[in-house]
Amino acid sequence: MMKTLIIHEMQNLLKSKRIYWTILLFLMLFTSIFVVRVVDYQNQLNQYIADEKDADEALQAAKNYSQIKQYAIQQPLIFSIYNQGHKYSRAAFIQYYEPILRTISLNEEANLYFNKDNKLDITFLVTFFLSLFILLISYDSINGEKQSGTLRIMMTYPVKRQSFILKKILGIFSFVALAFSLPYLVSLLILIIVYANLLTTGFFLSAFFYWLLILLFIFFFSLLGVLISILTKSPNRSLVFALFVWLLLSIILPITWEYIVSPQLFHQELNNLTLTYEKKLEHSKNIFYLREVDTNKYNVNEIDINKVSHLNWSNYFYDTSVWSFDEAYDQHYRFMQYVIDEYYPASREVEQAIDGLYRKQISVQNYKNGVFFFNPIVLFENLSTKIAGNSQLDYLKLLHNAREIRDELVNRGINEGWLKDYRFFACYSEKENCGTYNDLVKRFNGDHAKLWDYLMARINEPKEAFEFSLPDLHKYSQNQLSFGEIFSRIFPYLVLFVVNIIVLWLIIWFKFMNYDIR
Amino acid sequence: MLKISELSKRYEDAHLALDNLSLEIKPKEIFILLGANGAGKSTTINIICGFIPPSSGEVEIDGILLSKEPLKMREKIAYLSENVMLYDNFTGYQNLKFFAQLAGKKVEKDELEAILLKIGLQDSFFHKPIAKYSKGMRQKVGIAIALFKDTPVFLLDEPFSGLDPKAAYDFQQLLYSLRDDGKTIFMSTHDIFRAKEMADNVGIMTGGKLVAYKTKAELENADLNKIYLDYIEERQ
After folding, report:
1. Residue A238 and residue B79: Cα distance in Å, rounded?
2. What is the DSSP letter of B228?
3. Disruptive mutation site among A5, A157, A514, A515 for chain B (greatest number of B CBs within 10 Å)
4. Which residues from chain B sit within 8 angstroms of residue A516, using beta carbons?
5. Cβ separation B50–A156 shorter than 8 A
């Protein structure tokens, strides 16, 4: 009986001419979006592979030359097919600064690969319009049958009201679930065929959980549409009501929250935290650039920042004006002592301040997630990052890992002495009296190759002094989340959906049991 | 047998739509309920069909009580309204098939088409959407659906409305044959002449009350029109 009812409901929806164009539009939308996703995915994957390659090379370079290289501790963060290009996307790696004592925080501007365009992620449109689609086919599911009279004739058959309402809900749900799942599976299939060698288990887990959540999303909105149909007398009224509910849930309430409620509630606190962070950051910069130096304790002339820095190995080598390794050594040693004693603690305070700010932002976001769990944009912004493992909390975790490694290295560097060694940090200066690269090359009768050999030899001098265990840095690599981990992350959302589905179901049940079918 | 005992219905707005109605309609009987709009005819049918609950009283069909086994009661009744209500997107054949499945009948294509032919629907329309049917054609599909349900009791609410004279005549003959097959037919109408022609027994309702009950024998030499009007005027 129930099978007959559900199949009939789905056939009825299929035969309804008014939704043909809607189905067509959505099929086109889903398919095109997923095709775009595939292309995005390929780009992301290429970037990911390039990042990993760079990281490996840098790690090798660090081992070879006892130098902490820019890429050595970079994190090729997990990418997500869902949020690439979205404003919350942080397709970023965390840059490990040199000297290694600097603050480690989220730094998008310094990230070469960070997408600054903030381009709109069109994937969220799927759920955005999906909710509208569901409401458009369910708004007259009950009162439409009442108006046409088929509800009455149905009720002269041994069909329980519970069965009828279940048939309606399951029919709509199955129909939309199919309309969503088919293009989703087709596009996944294309992905598998074209990029089979590049896909990971994690990708399929993410794809599965995303699909699962969207099914719950569809069920929730199917119930909402049916409830609207029960609560309103005529289909015309329920159409207006449904559109209003959609606008309210998808646009008006989130905007109200974002621009009115949330600023009222959290603006002052976030502002204070931002100010604290900025002050501490300014303070730490002033220390590093010797603008806030205790002149009773330190002789500024002996620790000139312009004479002390690291030698950037890569493209800028020939632009670097080499001063004098021997003269630089003393400068460098004193400066590093100053940095360890003064800058390093200040840097930690900056980290704590920015962490506090991020944590507050995350808690504000969590309020929104709880209140607007049904909102497609919220669903996308949060669940996709949670599933993919690149939520803000994931980034904080990575930052902490990075800092742990830094602290370990710094402590080892201090204890083993190499942190203050000039061979760890070559020096340069642009000041005329320090000489320039050209001055230096003259010492080798203009022979660049000889100069290069000289520099390399100096830098490659006794390596033993700087040897430290780099394999530890591997813990910085982020592993793909397991099934259990993803499940535990989305569990609160599953509960929210299930609870709300039960509540809606009970309301529908009560209302329809007392529904006047005449 | 359809037995209605002291059936009353008072709506939430305190309007008494049905006042202590008691009736007994036997198998092989066509009972016609006459009454003006608001007399209580539709309320009676609505209660028997289970669309609305009665305020008091009971309905019984072949020993099954509406208050005790409402679902089983539905297996005993076939309902046909003035405006036959069907799924417009489905064809006449598909509508019949769906409702036959709901009634738990085994569905054979030949059997379904035969019944559509029997009630006089042109075979070229069997597989066209109901939306393209005339009112009379819809009525015929409605009749086919009710017939296919094959229940002991038929509840017909103004069933002749919209039928052309030929179809009306055919339908009338069909009802006679159903009666002869032992079915109980309960029909409400405004049409006094058809009532006199078809009914084995006639009831007249005004203001929710059954004010007159006439047998075929009583009606044979009487002017039903006059009786009806007298009761209506008396009530007003």
Report:
1. 29
2. H
3. A157
4. 52
5. yes
CB B66 within 8 A of CB A137: no
- Contact state of B104 with A160 under an 8 Å Cβ cutoff: no
Q: Where are the domains positioned within chain A?
A: 270-476
**C-alpha span between A11 and A19 (Å, rounded):** 12
Nearest to A156 among B74, B84, B88 (CB): B74
By C-alpha distance, the chain A residue nearest B150 is A157
- Which of B99, B138, B156, B157 should be substituted to probe chain A, the one whose Cβ sees the most A Cβ atoms within 10 Å? B99
What part of A 13-52 touches B (C-beta under 8 Å)? 15-17
- Between CA A223 and CA A215 the distance in angstroms is 12
Kindly state whether B169 is in contact with chain A, defined as any CB-CB distance less than 8 angstroms. Answer: no
> Would you call A322 helix, strand, or coil by DSSP?
strand
Q: How far is A3 from chain B (nearest CA, A)?
A: 11
Is the Cβ of B93 closer than 8 Å to some Cβ of chain A? no
The answer to whether B14 contacts chain A (CB < 8 Å) is no
What tokens were used for B22? 């008691």
- Give how far the C-alpha of residue A327 lies from the chain's centroid of Cα atoms, to the nearest Å: 46
Is the model's pLDDT at A85 over the cut of 80?
Answer: no
CA nearest to A12 within chain B = B89
Closest CA to A491 of A219, A220, A212: A212
Q: In 3D, which of A79, A115, A72, A116 has the Cα closest to residue A95?
A: A72
Indicate whether B137 pLDDT > 70: yes
Give ipTM to 2 decimals: 0.87
Q: What's B2-76+153-235's CATH class?
A: alpha beta
Name the residue facing A158 among B74, B86, B145 (closest C-beta). B74
- From A383, A354, A391, A409, select the one nearest A77 (Cα to Cα): A391
User: Looking at the complex, does the CB of residue A480 fall below 8 Å from at least one CB of chain B?
Assistant: no
Q: Is B148 on the interface with A (CB under 8 A)?
A: no
SS3 A435: coil
Domain map (residue ranges) of chain B: 2-76+153-235, 86-150
Mean pLDDT computed over A239-261? 87
User: What's the CA gap between A337 and A32, in Å, rounded?
Assistant: 58
3-state secondary structure A437-457: HHHHHHCCCCCHHHHHHHHHH
The pLDDT of residue B161: 78
Residues 6+ apart with CB under 8 A from A242: A135, A136, A138, A139, A225, A228
CB A514: neighbour CB atoms within 10 A? 9
Q: Are B155 and B51 in contact (CB under 8 A)?
A: no
Whether residues B101 and A153 touch (CB distance < 8 A) is answered with: no
Q: What is the pLDDT of residues A479-489, one digit of tens each?
A: 567 788 888 88
Distance between CA A4 and CA A163 in Å, rounded?
A: 11
B101–chain A Cβ distance below 8 A for any pair: yes
Mean pLDDT lowest among A140-154, A472-486, B47-61, B172-186: A472-486
* Cα–Cα dist B121/B125, whole Å: 7
Distance CA A369, CA A383 (A): 9
List b or e across B105-119, with b for residues whose CB sees 16 or more CB atoms inside 10 angstroms: eeeeeeebbebbeeb
B71 or A94: whose pLDDT is higher? B71
Average pLDDT rounded to a whole number, residues A442-450: 77
Residue A379 CA to residue A276 CA, distance in Å, equals: 32
- Cβ pair A158:B99 closer than 8 A: no
Cβ–Cβ gap A518/B52 under 8 Å: yes
Rounded Cα–Cα distance for residues A414 and A381 (Å): 43
Q: Which of residues 159-178 of A touch B (CB under 8 A)?
A: 159-160
Segment B32-53, tens digit of pLDDT: 998 888 888 888 999 998 888 8
